[in-house]
Design goal:
The chain is an alpha/beta fold. It is built from twelve helices and 14 strands. The protein has three domains: 134 residues, 3-Layer(aba) Sandwich (Rossmann fold), CATH 3.40.50.1010; 83 residues, Nucleotidyltransferase, domain 5 (2-Layer Sandwich); 79 residues, 2-Layer Sandwich (Nucleotidyltransferase, domain 5). The strands form four sheets. Strands 3-2-1-4-5-6 form a six-stranded parallel beta sheet, sandwiched between helices. A three-stranded antiparallel beta sheet has the order 9-11-10.
């Protein structure tokens, strides 16, 4: 029997690295994974947990920068590559690993192209994406437990049946035993337990939104430590560890469509990606960029460089601040936009100029 050729595409922004080994082992039961690609903006700290999986399972990490703050372009990049593979005619099975409903049209198109679609995700996977796949595997569903087979009893020589006797017995019509899918497997999956877990996850989301409304800065960011303290003060009777996440940061990183996280350690900031907050944050970003451009134009030297101190004073006079933006200093803020600015350091003096 010919082994099926599988093209694997992982949306790292939407799937936790803890499922890496499970994804590979599950797919290897279906065929040969000859294409192994994983997509994301690898400059993000939240994706560093994928490093070991990339090395251990020979995944090809495809870099996809975020062209707009708070929104990734991974979906489009992955879809384009998947269509290229479809037209090459080399793959027989496409494995799409994500929770994002944006991959629903891709799954439908690949299926129309005669491909078998295996989807993988967790409890947060969009239903539209699930039903668009020929098979959807829930990564965080409870596993199955195999019952060891009973050792076969040795049959005495006197009790062994001769070939002639076997033929005689074969003529007898014996009612078949009730069909069992696999008597050696007992499923411990329990929808009630899964439902309780979903309710607890929703409680965490509700608390994070409350903290965002009460304590977020101009850009919508608030300290991760503040969120942790608020969750602890609620006395929920459970923690994110009980839900399968080692830290609150890992929990938040599992929902990239809901949250954005910046910084590290005690300087880690979080924001909820609601529509209102995104608009508010982007508006503040635009105002600071405008001040930076005006300052560079008014105070730049013959090469167009202006000192950051001039820009800092101008930002303050316009009642703006980078506090809560996820960047500790103005120099880090400017450095975060290499497509817009060029930085220069002369001793302790930082300067910048706008790129055309």
């Amino acid at each position: 029997m010919t082994t099926k050729k599988i093209a694997l595409f992982i949306d790292a922004d939407n799937i936790s690295a803890k499922f890496g080994k499970q994804i590979i082992e599950t797919l290897e039961k279906h065929g040969e994974i000859f294409i192994r690609r994983i997509y994301g903006n690898w400059e993000k700290n939240s994706l560093r947990s994928w490093n070991d999986c990339i090395l251990n399972f020979s995944l090809r990490a495809v870099q996809q920068p975020d062209y707009v703050a708070g929104k990734n372009a991974t979906d489009m990049s992955l879809a384009i590559d998947a269509m290229d593979i479809l037209y090459s005619g080399k793959a027989e099975i496409f494995a799409l690993i994500s929770n994002d409903s944006d991959f629903t049209p891709l799954a439908i198109r690949l299926r129309e192209g005669g491909m078998k679609i295996i989807g993988m995700g967790n409890a947060n996977a969009a239903n539209s994406f699930r039903v668009a796949c020929d098979e959807f595997i829930d990564l965080d569903a409870p596993s199955e437990v195999e019952i060891p087979a009973e050792p076969k009893k040795k049959v005495p020589q006197s009790e062994k049946v001769s070939p002639t006797q076997m033929n005689l017995f074969a003529e007898e019509k014996v009612s078949p035993a009730p069909a069992v899918a696999n008597p050696k497997v007992i499923s411990i999956s329990n929808s009630k337990i899964q439902g309780e877990r979903d309710k607890k996850i929703q409680q965490i989301h509700n608390i994070l939104r409350e903290v965002s409304k009460s304590h977020s800065e101009a850009y919508g960011f608030f300290p991760l430590s503040m969120a942790g303290t608020e969750i602890k003060n609620k006395n929920l009777g459970f923690s994110v560890k009980d839900l399968g996440y080692s830290t609150l940061r890992e929990f938040i990183s599992a929902f990239p469509k809901l949250y954005e996280i910046n910084g590290s350690g005690t300087n880690t900031f979080l924001r909820c990606l609601s529509f209102a907050q995104k608009n508010k944050a982007e508006d503040n970003f635009q105002q600071i960029h405008k001040v930076l451009r005006e300052t560079a134009k008014a105070h730049g030297d013959e090469k167009g460089f202006a000192t950051l101190s001039w820009a800092g004073d101008a930002i303050g006079k316009n009642n703006l601040s980078i506090k809560g933006s996820g960047h500790g200093t103005l120099s880090k803020f400017v450095s975060a936009f290499p497509n817009l600015y060029e930085m220069r350091k002369d001793g302790k003096i930082f300067s910048y100029r706008c790129k055309k």
